[in-house]
Write a structure and sequence with these properties.
Layout: H1 2-13, H2 17-26, H3 31-43, H4 46-64, H5 66-70
Helix pairs in contact: 1-2, 2-3
């Protein structure tokens, strides 16, 4: 799922919302995540899309950060 999310995130950051939407449909992300990303990308609002992916990327990075969990 991380690979498909990464690809979706890259497409969205490049403004390729239609391609990102098609990748969401093919992905194995959870239904609620798919629904949320489809809603955000469907809006076409670059600011909201960028903020959403920035937030998700930050949360993923924090979850994967061993030093963050160690303390």
């Amino acid at each position: 799922e991380m690979e498909s999310y990464s690809e979706i995130s890259k497409l969205a950051s490049n403004g390729q919302y239609d391609k990102a939407l098609s990748k969401i449909k093919e992905s194995r992300l959870s239904g609620s995540t798919k629904k949320h990303l489809e809603m955000i990308l469907g809006s076409g609002d670059k600011y909201v899309i960028d903020r959403t992916f920035d937030e998700l990327n930050t949360r993923i990075a924090q979850a994967l950060c061993w030093d963050c969990w160690r303390d």
